[in-house]
Specification:
407 residues; binds magnesium ion; binds adenosine monophosphate; 19% helix; 32% strand
Amino acid sequence: MLPLEAVREFVLDRCPARTPVSVPVADALGLVTASEIISAEAIPQFANTAMDGFAVRSADVVDAPCDLRVIETIAAGHAPQVTVGPGEASRIMTGATIPPGADAVVMVERTSIVTDGPASGDGAAEIVRVEVSVPSGNHVRPVGDDLHAGTHVFGVGTELTAGHLGVLCSLGMTEVEVFPRLRVGVLSTGDELVDDGSPLRPGQIRDSNRRTLLALAHRADVIPVDLGLSPDEPDKIEAAISTGIDTCDAIVTSGGVSMGDFDYVKAVLDRIGDMRWMQVAIKPAKPLAFGTVGDVPVFGLPGNPVSSMVSFELFARPGLRSMMGHPDPVRPTVAATAAEDLPRRADGKTHFMRVLATSANGGIEVRSAGGQGSHMLWAMAKANALAVVPDGDGVRAGGPVDVLLLD
Ligand code: AMP
Ligand code: MG
């Protein structure tokens, strides 16, 4: 058996980042920047008010309360028309430009209107009473308060989240240079599998892996491509994989990589690609076939439903993320405490136990999510983490344990 880290290194070495492309910002969520983002503009580009209120000259309100003549109303998106002179104020809405002459804003809650009337013309002027004195710059957002022009905003290798996309839009960018989103084909193999909801004949089971792996691929920010279901027949497996090679950047298969008589996936891949057949010192997900057909990485995951998910998590997800330019493609582990015994038997393998992680006493506490068999998908579905239990007889309640937090 091979250690997990060695196998993962082997995988990552064969999953180099793809050639960068420029994509619309609208399509860039979850992608990784391939060039540095430098701000071409300041944000904000003009001094504006953080509050609804009155733009004033701070020198005028030193002896507040005091009364000022209202000369204009300035809405967001509209340029001020007049300069605020001594004894004057402009009513102003959040986000609107600070008018010339004014250097501070008094929030509307600290003012009252003492005479109503048109702000200009022959009628009585509108007078605002300012109840507090404010320093120069009060509630004013100066030019470049968020970002100055020429700032190194995001480096190469930044995963673009919702907030990042917002910043790119704020800077007026419509395209961004990133590592391209991969198309990842997912194929189920097995004579026993049914995927149409029809009644099962003796020995048949339903295909759960394809939906699970397509969903995990989606969550890994790739484009999942359904390559369907193939029976354990070399010709059909080869046809499905060939379709995947022609249309995808990477392929994930499940089933057919164990020691069984009809495990043809490896045989087919051996013939058409450069594959390694590996036994990894982990449980679940010991068997793994990995290699390339042409330059398309192929992950041959084991068929047991929990094994296929854990194998995706430990090998396929890091490999795919590496191809998409993630500088740290492997999910980090975090330290936790076992809230109950997590028993296991010594077998030379690291066990990845399905657990529920909750926050407790300022840290993370884990308890079993249910049955730990590699066919027991229910507990995997309920788990939000995998406890990394080293070889030995397990972790006692209260003991430390590392966990991989899942999505
Ligand atoms: P294999 O890796 O092909 O030897 O399959 C191991 C176990 O996983 C067997 O019990 C299979 O029936 C089961 N299995 C394989 N593929 C799937 C699938 N797509 N969905 C659910 N179970 C599967
Ligand atoms: Mg099989």
